[in-house]
């Protein structure tokens, strides 16, 4: 059965907007993925002790017709193809793609932890997910995602930047009719 998966993305190197939209397009170019919703883009302060530019962050949901491990490997391939290099942890990056939620699954393997282990600690991940679904519940803590926001340090700045333009996330293979156009969430307030 296809799972509803929340993928978080972010970029603070190079052309931030283009990096984000390319990463979404590349995920959607895979036949196992179909887009269900897309958040706005948010300008966010880095959660890091390393001085670096602000990020553009967001999230999207897909239905994914394969395992979580296969999805992780797709995301890592895309990061690599886009020029991501192993760098300092929490340092600047051209693109970061994370599996935030994989249905209600709880996964703990050496390479993959789902829900993402820092989802509930990061406003830049929580806020885009809540834009897509305000009633999301964390499958480990059994609390609404919204409830985590109050306990997070206000130093984490997240401000809505802009919506993603549909035409910027259409996959390279536009003629493939299995790829749905973004939902109305694209224009979320
Ligand atoms: P990052 O620095 O965010 O790109 O993450 C680096 C590593 O985190 C990857 O090599 C993954 O194996 C691991 N990882 C564990 N859980 C996740 C997850 N839910 N989503 C993405 N990466 C994950």
Task: Tell me what the structure shows.
The strands form two sheets. Strands 1, 2, 3, 4, 5 and 8 form a six-stranded antiparallel β-sheet that branches. The protein has a two-stranded antiparallel sheet with strand order 6-7. The chain contains four helices and eight strands, in the order βαβββαβββαβα. The N and C termini lie far apart (32 Å). Helices cover 22% and strands 24% of the residues. It is an alpha+beta fold. It has one domain (3-168): 7,8-Dihydro-6-hydroxymethylpterin-pyrophosphokinase HPPK (Alpha-Beta Plaits, 2-Layer Sandwich), CATH 3.30.70.560. The chain binds adenosine monophosphate (AMP). Adenosine monophosphate binds at residues 72, 96, 98-99, 111-114, 116.
Helix-strand layout with pairing:
Elements: E1 3-11, H1 16-28, E2 33-38, E3 41-44, E4 55-64, H2 68-81, E5 96-102, E6 107-108, E7 113-114, H3 123-132, E8 158-162, H4 166-169
Antiparallel strand pairs: 1-4, 1-5, 2-4, 3-4, 3-8, 6-7
Bound molecules: adenosine monophosphate.
Task: Just give the CATH class.
Answer: Alpha Beta
| First-residue to last-residue Cα separation | 32 Å
Supply the helix-strand structural class.
alpha+beta
Beta-strand residue percentage: 15-25%
CATH superfamily: 7,8-Dihydro-6-hydroxymethylpterin-pyrophosphokinase HPPK
- Largest beta-sheet characterization: 6 strands, antiparallel
| Rg (CA only) | 15 Å
- Tell me the total number of β-strands: 8
CATH topology: Alpha-Beta Plaits
What portion of residues is helical? 10-25%
Would you identify the CATH architecture?
2-Layer Sandwich
């Amino acid at each position: 059965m296809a799972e509803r998966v929340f993928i978080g993305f972010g970029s603070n190197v190079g052309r931030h907007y283009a990096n984000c939209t390319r990463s979404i397009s590349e995920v959607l170019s895979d036949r196992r993925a179909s887009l269900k919703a897309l958040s706005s883009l948010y300008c966010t302060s880095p959660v890091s002790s390393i001085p670096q530019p602000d990020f553009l962050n967001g999230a999207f949901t897909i239905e994914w017709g394969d395992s979580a491990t296969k999805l992780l490997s797709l995301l890592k391939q895309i990061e690599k193809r886009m020029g991501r290099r192993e760098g300092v942890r929490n340092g600047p990056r051209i693109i970061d793609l994370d599996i935030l939620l994989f249905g209600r699954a709880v996964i703990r393997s050496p390479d993959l932890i789902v829900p993402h282990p820092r989802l509930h600690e990061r406003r830049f991940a929580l806020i885009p997910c809540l834009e897509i679904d305000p009633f999301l519940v964390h499958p480990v803590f059994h609390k609404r995602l919204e409830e985590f926001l109050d306990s997070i340090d206000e130093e984490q700045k997240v401000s809505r930047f802009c919506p993603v333009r549909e035409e910027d996330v259409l996959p390279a293979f536009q003629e493939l009719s299995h790829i749905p156009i973004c939902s109305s969430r694209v224009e979320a307030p």
